Amino acid sequence: MILISTFVCISSPTTCPSIEALRHPVGNPTHQVNRILGGSVSFSVSVSQRITIEKIEWDFRPKTGGLGLWLSEDRHGKLDHPNPTERLGERLDMANQKMLRIKDLELNDSGIYTARVWFTKVQFQEQSFSLTVYEPVPTPQIDHQVDSKTPGGCNVTLRCHTPGRKDLSISWETGGPHRALGKSVNQYQVSDNGRELRVSFWNSSFNSKFTCLVSNPVGQKRASFDLLNICQSDEGEQYMLSFIIQRRCLWW
Fold this sequence. Notes:
Elements: E1 5-9, E2 32-36, E3 41-44, E4 55-62, E5 69-75, E6 78-80, E7 92-96, E8 99-102, E9 111-118, E10 123-134, E11 141-150, E12 153-161, E13 169-174, E14 179-180, E15 188-191, E16 196-202, E17 209-216, E18 219-226, H1 228-231, H2 234-251
Parallel strand pairs: 2-10
Antiparallel strand pairs: 1-10, 3-8, 4-5, 4-9, 5-6, 7-8, 9-10, 11-12, 12-16, 13-14, 13-17, 15-16, 17-18
């Protein structure tokens, strides 16, 4: 939520009350509001209870560009807004005079919501809120490839897949409970923006489980893979047998 406060007096300085009486305290907080697709959000105007509000106007400017929209006007607790069948429609309401609420959020609801708070016919204050709506985090999948194997362990490449999504953060963990990977470049190598993990694993290693963590600002999901399933299985042996046969064919 980005909260921007501006006081405007449309008159001569002598007819305006003290700006300090209407301004928020110095150092207004700046926030980003993050919500999940299908959820709800409330924007609450911050105004001192000592100040009388004549009306509050709300408008919306989409992050993707395009024309802004006038959403509603609340005058003494009475809500007025344009054709309810357009844009936000019935998803928009006022929880109270100072709070705008939107339910069943859609991705194109992301944008800047601005409240213009009128104290008199010539004095107002603006507060703006920045909303980003995110899709739910999908469940990741881990693919693996045995690069090489020895009696003591194997070298494996793990790849974390998130179907059709690029706006996600991806990281790797090990063990249980989960913890971040160590910094040993000899044992771990991460590439492709975190999606690919190359592991040099020894059968005597304490941790054999590796986990892909996928997240965005509104959620996270994990998928795990145990290297013992392949480093101590026929899959690795079959790889070595294929490798030996190929080498012998080259010698012949």
